[in-house]
Write a structure and sequence with these properties.
By secondary structure, the chain is α/β, with parallel strands linked by helices.
Length: about 425
């Protein structure tokens, strides 16, 4: 039986470990979080995701999670790095976890093994960062003593249609042989196309381009929302109309901010790498600027509505619905909710937070307590629990203003109750 070690058991690594186990691999999962290791070995998902919860229930004892690299890497035919690659406070790529993982793997991987990086990285990272670590430990990847490849992850937490089994993948290798081996591996575990690119740089650039495309289009629609708001035009109605065109238009939607480990991070990887090569990405930087402005804009909407009723943001009691960066997941990475909260606190507001999916983030017991303690609401995350709330409760608890940061609530019903409603691009 072929064996595989997944380094990093988070939103990317854990689904991959489950998929490999389902397809007959002996699977090791390496992580530094002992609590996470303990849960996985009990068949319990450390991530609040229905897909993973069900998978792990059925795969108990099929994934050997461990903190001991010596226990797994030397015994594996395939080693895959799935560690986080965030940006630092200056938005520069932070490859600390990747370099550490590469060093752990390089000192233990056996000759002839397939070594894949799935973490999102800028073009050139494997050749400039990972390969030197391998060489430091005596490996010669250009001679295929270890087959080094990159396959950018495409996990979309909470997406029920596109899951790891049916998502097409792209691969690139340090050598053609490494790319072929990587393609063969992914073909053995997924029911989708696996495209082999001509270089590892092309594979690295693919993920960056995918998410930068989304960031730019979200920035475009966020700017349109700001413009349409002043013109009294409903952005959702316009998007619905434009979507009837059967070609050359792809709907994107405005919101209170862009979060997650991909769209809000990946453009900076390309921006920084291009800067090193002497190219300045004006368009990408502008998209980031627009999307980063949305938490402040959301609070501006609240302040404008408060001004109309002669109220101030200082000492206002504001309830925040949601901490996760997107609906129905517990993923808080780069979530704009935290910017919203920090800005409100800086303005002197009293802030109450509730997220049914983020267990340690709320400062109230439940939604009802949040309503009891709040005068105004900002919906920051479109969880189903919030989409389907009993709006009569808002009137019962005398909520006077609702800022719908995800445009998912019933605007007309809220207004019929005498409550002020303002969405993003929906005045």
């Amino acid at each position: 039986m072929k064996s595989v070690t997944i380094v990093g058991l988070g939103y990317v690594g854990l689904p991959l470990a489950c998929l490999c186990a389902e397809n007959g691999f002996k699977v090791y999962g390496l992580d530094i979080d002992k609590n996470k290791i303990e849960l996985i070995n009990k068949g319990i998902s450390p991530i609040d995701d229905g897909y993973l919860i069900n998978k792990l229930k059925n795969l108990k004892n099929k994934i050997n999670a461990t903190v001991n690299a010596d226990e797994c890497i030397p015994n594996s035919n395939v080693v895959i790095i799935c560690v986080p690659t965030p940006v630092d406070k200056n938005n520069a790529p932070d490859l600390t976890a990747l370099i550490k993982a590469a060093s752990i793997v390089s000192g233990r991987i056996k000759k002839g093994a397939l070594f894949i990086v799935e973490s999102t990285i800028y073009p050139g990272t494997v050749e400039e960062v990972v390969v030197p670590v391998l060489k430091k430990h005596g490996h010669e990847p250009e001679k295929n003593d270890v087959f080094v490849a990159h396959c950018p992850e495409r996990i979309d937490p909470g997406n029920k249609k596109w899951v790891i089994e049916n998502l097409p993948r792209v691969v690139g290798g340090i050598t053609k042989e490494a790319a072929i081996k990587a393609a063969e591996f992914y073909k053995s575990i997924i029911n989708a196309d696996v495209i082999m690119l001509s270089s590892i740089k092309a594979a690295e650039a693919t993920k960056i381009m995918e998410n930068t495309f989304r960031d730019v289009n979200i920035a475009f629609v966020n700017e349109m929302a700001k413009s349409f708001d002043k013109a009294g035009i409903d952005i959702l109605e316009v998007i619905r109309g434009a979507s009837t065109k059967p070609f050359a238009f792809m709907p994107h939607y405005p919101g209170a901010g862009v979060g997650g480990h991909c769209i809000s991070v990946d453009p900076y990887y390309l921006i920084e790498k291009a800067k090193q090569l002497g190219f300045h990405h004006k368009f990408l930087l502008l998209a980031r600027e627009i999307n980063n402005s949305m938490p402040s804009y959301t609070i501006e909407l609240l302040e404008n509505e408060l001004n109309k009723i002669n109220k101030k943001i200082e000492k206002a009691k504001v309830g925040i619905l949601g901490l996760a960066y997107k609906g129905n997941v517990d993923d808080i990475r780069e979530s704009p909710s935290f910017d919203i909260i920090n800005i409100l606190k800086a303005k002197g507001a009293d802030v109450f937070v509730f997220d049914p999916h983020v267990k340690n983030g709320s400062n109230v017991r439940d939604f009802d307590e949040l309503l009891q303690r709040s005068q105004y609401l900002i919906l920051a995350t479109d969880h189903n629990e919030f989409r389907n709330i009993d709006l009569n409760k808002l009137k019962k608890h005398k909520i006077s203003v609702v800022i719908d940061g995800r445009n998912c609530l019933d605007r007309e019903k809220i207004r019929q109750m005498g409550i002020i409603y303002h969405g993003i691009g929906r005045s």
